[in-house]
Write a structure and sequence with these properties.
- The structure is a single chain.
- With about 250 residues, the protein is of the alpha+beta class.
- It folds into 2 domains: about 1-110, DNA Polymerase III, Chain A, domain 2 (Roll); about 125-240, DNA Polymerase III, Chain A, domain 2, CATH 3.10.150.
- The chain has 4 helices and 17 strands.
- It has helices at about 5-15, 65-70, 130-140, 195-205, and strands at about 1-5, 25-30, 30-40, 40-45, 55-60, 75-85, 85-95, 100-105, 125, 150-155, 160-170, 175-180, 180-185, 190-195, 210-215, 220-230, 235-240.
- Strands 5-2-3-4-17-16-15-9-13 form a 9-stranded antiparallel β-sheet, with helices on one face. A 4-stranded antiparallel β-sheet has the order 1-6-7-8. A 4-stranded antiparallel β-sheet has the order 12-11-10-14.
- The relative contact order is 0.16.
C-alpha cells in the first residue's frame, strides 16, 4: 500500500505547478527518486521511506492526468505495475472503490540529466526559515500580472553582518529585503525568475529544514542558486536555478 498524501506530495515537488509533466520515477532498494530538467533549472526529489513499488524505472508522460486519478482515491492506495518484455507498460492503481489503469511511456524516451558541477563551497548561504518564505512571497506579489517577472540578488554589509539583498521592481516601485547570510566574496546583482522560485517554495511549504546556497561560477559571470529541503516524512528535494538576463 502507498499513502496518497505522500505520493501527491512527492509529485507536487517535481511537477512544480505543472512545469514538469514528463518524468521518470526510479525505484531502487524500495526508495524513490527522480531527476528533472527545465529551462534554466534542474532538480532532484527523493523519498527515503518504504516506497512499495517493484524496483525499476517508470516513465510518466502525463503527470496532471496521474494526479487527477489519485485525487479520486482513498488515502491508502494499492500501486502495482504491469510489464511487457520486462518494461513497465502501465500502473494498476486501486482503493476499495476504484480500479484505474494508467498507461506508462517507454523509459528509453528519457535522457538522464547530467550531473552539475559547482564550487566546493557556496559563495553565500543561509538556513531557510518561515520568515524568508513570507518575505519572498509577499514582496514578489507586487510583480503579479507582469511579463517575465524577475528579482535581483546581491551581497551587502548590514548592521549585524553580511546580508543577501533581494530586490523586486515594478515600474516606479522598488522593494528590498535582506537576509543575514554567510558570504565569502562580493556578489554583484544577478537576476532570477520570480515565478520559478515562488512555485518551488510553495511546493516545499511543509519543509522541516532547508538551505539557500548561491554559487558564483568563476570567469563565467554566472550565479547559481541551490535550494534544498527536507520534510519530516522523509522527502528530500534539491533544486538548481541559473541566473537569467534582464
Amino acid at each position: 500500500m502507498v499513502s496518497k498524501k505522500v505520493l501527491l506530495d512527492v509529485i507536487s515537488k517535481y511537477s512544480l505547478g505543472g512545469l514538469v509533466e514528463k518524468i521518470q520515477w526510479i525505484v531502487k532498494d524500495n526508495k524513490f527518486s527522480t531527476e528533472f530538467l527545465g529551462s534554466g533549472y534542474k532538480g532532484i526529489v527523493e523519498y527515503n521511506n518504504d516506497f512499495n513499488l517493484k524496483e525499476g524505472n517508470y516513465a510518466i508522460w502525463e503527470t496532471p492526468q496521474l494526479v487527477k486519478c489519485l485525487n479520486i482515491l482513498d488515502e491508502d492506495i494499492l500501486l502495482e505495475a504491469s510489464y511487457k518484455s520486462g518494461i513497465p507498460t502501465h500502473f494498476n492503481i486501486a482503493d476499495t472503490n476504484y480500479e484505474i489503469t494508467f498507461s506508462l511511456s517507454d523509459p528509453s524516451n528519457f535522457d538522464t540529466p547530467k550531473p552539475s558541477s559547482s564550487p566546493p563551497a557556496p559563495t553565500a548561504t543561509f538556513e531557510i526559515s518561515d520568515e524568508f518564505f513570507t518575505r519572498f512571497i509577499k514582496s514578489t506579489d507586487i510583480l503579479s500580472g507582469t511579463t517575465n517577472p524577475l528579482f535581483s540578488l546581491k551581497s551587502a554589509e548590514g548592521f549585524t553582518g553580511s546580508e543577501l539583498i533581494f530586490n523586486v521592481e515594478n515600474g516606479h516601485t522598488s522593494l528590498d529585503f535582506a537576509i543575514e547570510s554567510e558570504i565569502k566574496e562580493e556578489i554583484k546583482p544577478f537576476y532570477f525568475n520570480v515565478d520559478l522560485i515562488r512555485v518551488i517554495l510553495k511546493a516545499n511549504k511543509n519543509y522541516s529544514n532547508g538551505s539557500f546556497n548561491a554559487y558564483l561560477i568563476p570567469n563565467k559571470n554566472v550565479l547559481v542558486i541551490k535550494l534544498e529541503f527536507k520534510t519530516e516524512n522523509g522527502i528530500k528535494t534539491k533544486y538548481q536555478i541559473n541566473n537569467t538576463i534582464k
